[in-house]
Every structure is written in structure tokens, then in C-alpha cells.
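Not sure how to ask, but would you mind making up any protein sequence you like and the C-alpha cells describing how it folds?
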Amino acid sequence: MVTFVSTRGDPERVGLGEAVLRGLAPDGGLYVPEHIPPLPPLAKPPAGEAYSFPELAAHVLSAWTDNMLTVAQLERLVQRVFTFPVPLVQPGGDTDVHILELFHGPTLSFKDFGARMLGGLLGLLQSETDKETVVLVATSGDTGSAVADGCSGIDGVRVILLYPKGGVSPTQELQLTRRRPGVTPVCVSGTFDDCQRLVKGAFAGPRPPHIRLTTANSINVGRLLAQMVYYIHAGNSLLQQAPSARASPIFCVPSGNLGNLTAGMMAYRAGMPAKGFVAAHNANDFFPSWLLDAGARFAPSVKTLSNAMDVGAPSNFERLEHLFGRANLATLVRGAHVTDAQTLEQMRLTWEETSYMADPHTAVALRAAHTSSEPGQPVIVLSTAHPAKFPETVQQATGSVPDVPERLAVLARAAHHAERIDANQSMVSDLISA
């Protein structure tokens, strides 16, 4: 059984279910596993076949959920939430750079993996309590709509989404504010860091006794478990595409709040082969700076073209440092800082050279991959969002407009709503108690 403790020293041990329901530990810390279980042995599939993503997810997560889900419950859950493809593609033919497309879910973002898994877990856990569960989320773009999709319509669960005014793309805002049962989008006059501060403040303050407060940000460890799976899936896919390749891949991760990188590092600690990781950041580059200088400090967030990564004070830094320590992180992770100009240039070059259309977040990782790897070294770039979510930036960089999937096209015809507040803690408390 995997038990979880706080990064800030609270000695209480909890199971996965309680860690998911609480979101944050009582002392304000993030939940971390006391140990990371090794990956269970996986028998080779029949020749010419491969395990489906849900089959792999059930296998990997069985070591984490044995204290709260039966094997049958876990298998039903992953079959229900992971209903979309997870392809590993290789633009440009013989290049060593592979792209793991994580944007084929309902909201066209990698956040669908963690949010849908979390929604499934909350649905099971909610049936065992008479309290109302309020899911409070700070989002810089994609998290909010993924959580809204994954957690809406669950009996006894309300979702409150805090997003910064002017800090998300127009398409992302349409996704966030689409009317869904049990979901309240809230436009905050402030930055993403303000939204994140309001979420943490809500956990530290009082709330009505009938309400259980949790979060679906990557603060919640339940989200990271689902994200571990796609790293392992990517490595397996690489071996299928190039069975003679002997070198373990480097994973290049577009990074903001550092949850995605944390999930990859947890998969590595569990036994997934990897030569290392590249944390690809935009102008919000605290973490790359800290890898070089332990004296680096958080800074106010800076607005960039890759807005989902506009995080000046990444929450999961605390979890990463606790789990791995600075010496290990500096050995295993290389930081990269990519400017907006370099992002646009990489989008243009990738389009012209390979006809592959990358969104700005993927372009940050592609730029970092090309400048951080050696010839012959396989690199897996995580592509975290569909380019159609950023049509203006894509057109500016490439001169072409991305095709719009029907899931985005319907947004213009849907009903929308949003509350509007200042970056004020009491206003958030009122929303929670409503």
C-alpha cells in the first residue's frame, strides 16, 4: 500500500483516496508518496500487437491504487476516461526528435489525462461521503477546461475555476466559460500567481462544515499518477518504432507549474528507462535558474505566447525538491529558457522543414530539444496542446491557419458564463460557501 505525507513535515500518513480528497495537506504542504513503487513486470504482448493505453494504465496504476480500488474497478475507470489516442510521431523522417501528442482528448490538452482520472476518482470517493466536495482550481489556460470537462456533472461535486483576466487565449477562455453542470468559471483581475495564491489561501482559511475542499491543479497528486502513464507509453512506443535503438530517450517537457515534469520523474524513479529530462521554460524561468544557482528565487509571472507556462512560483517545485533533492535534480534535469522570438522562429522552422504544425508550448520544447541533445540521441518532446487553440500565434509564425476540430468549432455556438472578481480572498470564500 502506498501512503502519502506532506512535504512540510506533518507526520500524518494517508492513503491515496484521502490525499486526492484533501488536495493539500493540513499544514499547507503537498502530498508525496513515502515510497514510489517499482513498475510491475509487464509481459510482452503477442507478436505484432501492443498494449492499449488503458491496459497499460491499469497495469502501472495497480501499484498505487490497491488500497482503494479493486482490479475490476481500476480497469473500468481507465477504460472510461482514456478514450482517445496517444500517438508518438516523427516529423522530418530520420530525425532523432519524436513528438508525443497529448492533445487528442476532449479539450485538446494534455491536462485531459490527469483531470479525467481525477474526476473518475472523485466520483468513486464522493459516493462514500455525505459532504459536498468543492474542487477549487487555478488555471493559466488548459487546466480549467480539462477539469471542467472531467469533473462536471458528478453528484455532490462543484467546480470553481479561477483564471487571470487577459491571461488566457480567446479560445481557451471560450473553453473555460462554456456552461457545464456544477461548474463556475471565475475571471480574476490579476495574474495566474494571484489565482494560485487564492487557492492556497482558501485551504488555509475556514469553510462550512458540510463542505470538503479539494483542488484539481497539479497540486493534487491524483493528477500526476495518470501523467506518469504516458511517459511509460512513450518509451514503449519508441521501442516499437525503433526496436534496434539501444539508447534510452531524453524527455523534453514544456514546463510551467512543474507537475508534468514531476510525473515524468516519478515514472523514472519507478523504473522507466530515461537518460534524463529537459525542463523547457519560457521567460518564466525560475527552475532553470535554480538548477544553476540554488539562490534563485520566485519572481512575478511574465506574460508570453506560451501562456499555460506563465508561472512565476511553480507549486510542484516543493514536491520535486522534496522527492529528489537538488543534487539529483541538477544531475537528471537540464533547464532551458526559450524566448517568444525563438518560439515563433521554431514554429516557422518546424512547419517549413517538416510540415508539422506546433502550438507555442510544443515549440518551446522543440527549441529546447534541438539545442540540448546530441546527434543520435533519441528525444521525446511532449506536445501539450493542439495548435488550433492558438490560431493567431500559429498564423503569425507560419502564415497558415490550423484546422479547427469540431470540439472547438462548437464553442462559438455554446452558452457561456463567468463570474468576475478582484484578487480578493473573501470573494473566493463567498463562492465556496454559496
